[in-house]
Write the structure tokens for this entry.
Amino acid sequence: MNNFLKYALFILSIALGQGTKAQISNTEKEFLINLNKSTSGEHWQHTWDLNADPSSWYGVKIEAGHVVGLNLYRNKLEGKIPVGIGNLKNLKNLNLSFNTLEGNIPPDLFELKEIISIRLEMNKLSGTLPNDYAKLQNLEELSMFNNLLGGTIPEGIGSLKRLRSLNLSSNYLEGNLPKGLENLTNLERLELFGNKLTGSIDVELGKLVSLKELILSYNQFEGDLPSSTASLSNLEFVQLQGNDFRSLNALMQLKSQNLAVFDSDDEFLNLKFKKGVVDRTRLVDTKFEDVKN
């Protein structure tokens, strides 16, 4: 065999290997096609050619023959997320935010053991949150603000030991904060603005030792803020206004060196922490408008 033929066969083997690597299973491809059809894929801003290889589809990231990323942020999706997303067993990052998705969140989404980030904010999703999060042990980000979600915040959310960001703002969530939240020792951002949450806060917030942002504004919380809140030395952003707290005296001893924004209904505390003019658009958090995932 001459050198030219050997070289040609070598190049062909590489090409075939790359082509094989780009393939995904029929079940994964079937879900992607169902998602496209159930969300008016022909009207997406970035459409898919369903006859082409999925590796060429906008927002689909494939590694080692599996879908690991699905990013259709602000892509004009309309309709419902179909059941079957659980077939994307290697999915790590899901971003369907800033679309017009409606209906319930498929329960099999919460069976994805590899998932790191779930972002469904700024849609019209309804229904309630699931109770069981035991399989999501790699989850670091759960963002569902500005939807139509109701019911309570499940106790099971406290099992998400790696969670760093929880944003459920601007929904219709009600009831008390679940005690399980205090297990989220890696949590850096807790954002629950603009719901119907009620009652005294029995969660020992001081156990959230990594917390940087605490946003509980415009709910119906009452009673005293837990005294342990004063130990949160990493706080940078605090908003508590629009509630019925009896006392925020726990924060008199707060010694966070990084506090940039503090807003409450206690004017003395506002002055103490040198409250400036708060950008109210920050309450409806849109700082995640990116396409990194």
Remarks:
- The CA atoms of residues 5 and 11 lie 10 Å apart.
- The chain has three helices and 17 strands.
